[in-house]
Amino acid sequence: MSTDTDTVVSAPEPAPDSTSASSSPDGRWSQFVAAAGPVLLAILAALAIGAVLIAWAGENPLSVYWTVFQQSMFERTGWRDTLSRAAPLTLIGIGLGIGFRSSIWNIGAEGQMVAGAVAAISVLGVTDLPVPLAITVGLILGAIGGTLWASIAGLLITRYGVNDVIATLLLAFTAVPLLNWVARDPLQDPESFLPQTRIVGSGELPDIPWLDTHIGIIFALVAVAGMAWLMRATRFGFIVRAHGANREAVYANESRRRVVTFGILALSGAFAGVAGYVVLAGEQIRVSGGTAAGFGFTAIIVAIVGRNSPIGVLVSAVGLSAMLVGAEAAQRETGLPVSLMQAIQALMVICIVGGNALAERRDRSKQKRLAT
Amino acid sequence: MILAQSDIVTLAFWTAVLASGVRLSISVATAAIGEMITERSGVLNLGLEGTMIIGAFAAFATAFETGSVWIGLVGGVVAGAVVGLVFAALVVLLAVDQVVAGLSVTLFGVAFTSFLNTEIYGGSPLPPRVPTPDTLAIPLLKKLPLVGEAFFQQNQVAYVSVILIVVLALWLRRSYSTLVIDASGESPTAADAAGHSVALTRILATTAGAGLAGLGGAILVVGQLGFFNSNITAGRGWVALALVIFGRWKPALIAAGAVLFGTLDALQFRFQTLDSAVPFEFFIALPFIVTLVALAVGSSGVRSPSALGQPFRRATE
User: pLDDT tens-digit profile of A23-42?
Assistant: First the structure.
């Protein structure tokens, strides 16, 4: 599935990203095609399986897919929702991607996101700061909340040797009941009978005039640009990439085991926490049980589909967000549940990694034929 | 019913807690033993939660259509094994990253079963139910203090599952297959050199483990609850994964850990109604917190199978 000129030199570990700095003779464009071509094929394969399921459910697959596309991309509300959800997905996805690329598996972004939102509302709910200051405070508190929650996992992993997937995920399961408690008791809006906090007030994100969507997507774009530069041009980026490829070498030469693992976890937690603030201040206005809306889990797919690179994450976040927004419109029209689209997105990941592995295998056998 | 603090010191309270604790532990223990077999062959199946819930739905659907709990259980095993076979093909034959593949299977399983459930059984306002199996009380033994109700007054599915787990554990202790499984998880090169196919061993161990995970989901739904809901496994697959580490890849320790976790879960349900200053949400989070603490305390010096999570490629390939 990759082009003939771009043979992958046999890398024994099938790291989920392969956007390495190796330059092919045909330059950037063919590199892009080689990277994006198999992904597009895999996405088509997943959509084809989805079409079978839609047909089984008694709907016309083409008209359902058309509804998804048209509602999410061309309708004003769809466009708005797509971008406003792509913002937190991008923010979380960037952080997770950095972790995945360095083989540190933070699966509990949902909990870190919740912690960020709670940290932000705990101050913004009771103060009335001027708008720019309120937003700054919200972003910082979100980052701190997410970092703290991720740090618990970091401590369990680096100091007590707990498995990273399990530590981060069980902490997310822990965060959700605590969120319900916070919204019901200590931070509950005294004027409300519902388990929800006060409103975010002046910390609410303003809209971008012509786009009709809140400025969260701008934060996401800034984060993408910043992290893309950081990954490409700094020692930090080098350590992250090297850690995924050969972590023992990193520990021997560059940095200490605990520092690297803890730092990458804390960073991805900070991104998730900021996303928590964006969800709070852009869409939900208050913190409630509904603040844990699944962004942290969808972002896992976003990161993998975006091949863990910041720009890839941005593209996949917009795409996956549009699919979900469109699927909600399709649910309203046909009654087809949104969970089908979530299943299709998981299938996409399976098709993408499976397709990559097949391509790699074919390249390897071709190399062997050439060698003999 | 509000639980008074004085109730907690009574024997009746703890007898009831242990009984429901054992009941809650059986599905998790079954899935955890399955994952243990898979991991000992060198494959980390993070798709356990998704496999469990697919098994749970398949079991519910087969039990609902045939009217038999037992056929439902078989349906759960078969569905789990099919999912495991696909996962094994991805990670063993194609050497796809095991973490990515496993997470995808879990995300797929949770979403897909939710979709199927809405499409097939979503029409009625009340979820359809299947009859739960009859309780089988063993005379005399059921009267034993504390443990009587827990071990000798459960339903038929519970007994069958426990017997299955015990037989499996005994077989694993004594069989040649265990040696081959452990060899491909500890030193695949050596296993290969000794003439055993590492790929085949891992595919079989992964399929069998996933079949047990499917059975775990089936036990939960047709053996205990009698209905299916979106996300009905609610993290039990992840707890089972934690139990494998906590139990150091040994069946007896894993089973003990499962009973501990189940008892905690049972306690949590009751503590939610306790009139105390502690908010009930903390009790909901308690099983996860305790699992984390147990892992933190118990993880030092634990050695996982050496080749766990690493794909094996023959030198000649």
Answer: 445 567 777 777 677 788 89
Q: Which residues of B touch A343 (CB under 8 A)?
A: 108, 111-112, 115
Give the span between the Cα atoms of B17 and B5, in whole angstroms: 15
Query: What ipTM was reported for this prediction?
Result: 0.89
Tell me the pLDDT tens digit for each residue of A178-197. Answer: 999 999 888 898 888 888 98
Write out the CATH class of domain B5-123+152-298: mainly alpha
Cα dihedral A245, A246, A251, A256 sign: positive
Nearest C-alpha of chain B: how many angstroms from A347?
Answer: 7
The crossing angle, in degrees rounded to 10, of helices A28-56 and A339-371 is 130
Verify whether the Cβ–Cβ distance B103 to A12 is below 8 Å.
no
H or E stretch at B167 = helix B156-174
Q: Which of A156, A357, A358 lies nearest to residue B296, judging by beta carbons? A: A156
pLDDT of A22 higher than 60:
no
In whole angstroms, what is the distance from residue B232 CA to residue B120 CA? Answer: 16
Nearest to A350 by CA among B256, B38, B47: B47
CB–CB of A57 and B90 under 8 A?
no
pLDDT of the residue at A21: 44
Cα of B77 to nearest chain A Cα, Å: 21
Q: Does B88 touch chain A (CB under 8 A)?
A: no
Alpha carbons A109 and A271: distance in angstroms, whole number: 9
Comparing alpha-carbon positions, the chain B residue that sits nearest to A360 is B94
Domain spans of chain B, in order of start: 5-123+152-298
Q: Kindly determine whether residue A346 and residue B115, on different chains, have CB atoms separated by under 8 Å.
A: no
Query: Can you give the pTM of this predicted structure?
Result: 0.89
